[in-house]
Write a structure and sequence with these properties.
The protein is mainly alpha-helical. The chain has one domain. Helices cover 65% and strands 0% of the residues. Helix 3 packs antiparallel against helix 12, helix 4 packs across helix 15 and helix 5 packs across helix 16. The longest helix is centred in the last third of the chain and has 31 residues. The radius of gyration is 25 Å and the shape is globular. The N and C termini lie far apart (53 Å).
């Protein structure tokens, strides 16, 4: 352990996070210098394909919630707006703000739902994405897209250079995280059985093979086709030679940059890797302009698309108010769950049938009498408007 800890201070200050941002802002200058050469039509087509990619992904979440709450009626467009709003906010605000808004809007859309189930329903899209991401990364490693491990430490990106310079610490971190998660699960699972029951309910669709393939895997497959088209057209917009090999190389770099997000949206990491991976395809200035230009364009599109969806469906653009309400409601639900658990723990044990005495159990409504969870007042909160003309029967997409 002492040897492991001793490695950390050895990292030179020149390799700190500032280098990632220096690489990013250097690419920004290249982008501004090459702005006049940007092709507008391919750029718009790339963003349109990206919008289709985001839209098709919402179908998996919608069908996941449909499987978890088959008796409830709600519209797909509300789920569509909730996911786009969360994605848009995450593009401009750090610290899980977008995920909180997405979770809050999802719960408000589905009657009689809870945060544990709605939150776990996000996982419905994970298996397909993990398989595709693994295949793309495997392609990148087998085709020599990424530099060798010793060369990673020389890149002007803190995320990669730090772990490449300290492989022992990297292995320790990769091993420690799952151990901590398993330990946390073991400690909490005994005390929060109802919570885990709600979590299992959220992933019901994963247990229904045909419904999963039709309702999640199929729309995600089409979504990834639009993702490939988006990357293709974005390369055309920045006057970079395009082929399927180059598109997959770019997607492998983007996947690798998202693995260790120590800087916002992998700032600096994508720039450093793309310039190395696509060396010889275009000039360094063009590659730097592309790497930061596509990040800026996609982030701006995500934010505008998300706010537009929020305004169209929920009739509000006050994402700060939604964020505050989401945090307050999640805290209140957690407090109520802890209170309920404490009340259940205090219920007297069942009587022994052999002692001839009968224990008196309090009525259910008297358990923890006087203890109520304080939910936030509605005063000053953002009001969400919903359509009253819901379909009579649930509809699957």
């Amino acid at each position: 352990m002492q040897t492991l800890i001793a490695q950390i201070p050895l990292l030179p200050l020149a390799s700190g996070p500032g280098n990632s941002f220096e690489s990013f802002f250097s690419a920004v200058n290249s982008f501004l210098d090459n702005l006049a050469e940007l092709q507008l039509l391919p750029l718009l087509l790339a963003l349109a394909c990206h919008g289709m990619y985001l839209t098709l992904r919402t179908v998996a979440w919608y069908n996941g919630l449909r499987a978890a709450y088959p008796a409830e009626r709600f519209r797909w467009r509300n789920i569509w707006a909730a996911e786009l709003a969360g994605n848009g906010i995450s593009s401009i605000v750090p610290a899980r703000a977008g995920a909180i808004v997405r979770l809050y809007l999802g719960k408000q859309t589905v009657n009689n739902s809870n945060y544990a189930t709605v939150g776990s329903s996000f996982v419905v899209a994970a298996p397909f994405d993990l398989v595709v991401g693994f295949l793309i990364l495997t392609y990148g490693f087998t085709q020599g897209v990424f530099p060798d491990l010793p060369d990673l430490s020389k890149l002007n990106a803190f995320d990669l250079s730090f772990f490449a310079s300290h492989p022992t610490f990297a292995i320790f971190t990769i091993t420690l995280i799952p151990i901590l998660l398993l330990t946390l699960f073991a400690v909490l699972s005994v005390r929060v059985r109802e919570f885990w029951a709600n979590v299992r309910r959220g992933v019901t669709l994963l247990t229904q093979r045909d419904a999963y393939l039709r309702g999640a895997a199929l729309p995600q497959g089409f979504a990834w086709v639009f993702r490939i088209a988006s990357v293709w057209m974005m390369l055309v917009a920045f006057n970079i030679e395009v082929s399927l090999d180059i598109v997959l190389t770019v997607m492998a770099v983007q996947a690798a940059a998202s693995l260790i997000p120590l800087t916002p949206q992998g700032a600096g990491v994508q720039q450093a890797l793309l310039v190395t991976a696509l060396a010889g395809v275009a000039s360094g200035a063009t590659l730097a302009a592309y790497s930061v230009g596509q990040q800026i364009a996609v982030a701006a599109f995500n934010a505008l698309f998300g706010l537009a969806a929020l305004a169209f469906v929920f009739r509000t653009t006050d994402w700060r108010g939604l964020l505050a309400q989401g945090r307050a409601e999640q805290a209140a639900e957690k407090a109520a769950a802890e209170l309920a658990y404490g009340a259940v723990a205090e219920v007297p044990p069942e009587p022994d049938p052999n002692d001839g005495n009968t224990a008196e159990f309090p009525p259910a409504e008297d358990v923890a009498d006087g203890d109520t969870a304080e939910y936030p007042s509605s005063e000053g909160q953002t009001t969400l408007e919903y359509d009253a003309d819901l379909p009579d029967e649930p509809r699957y997409y």
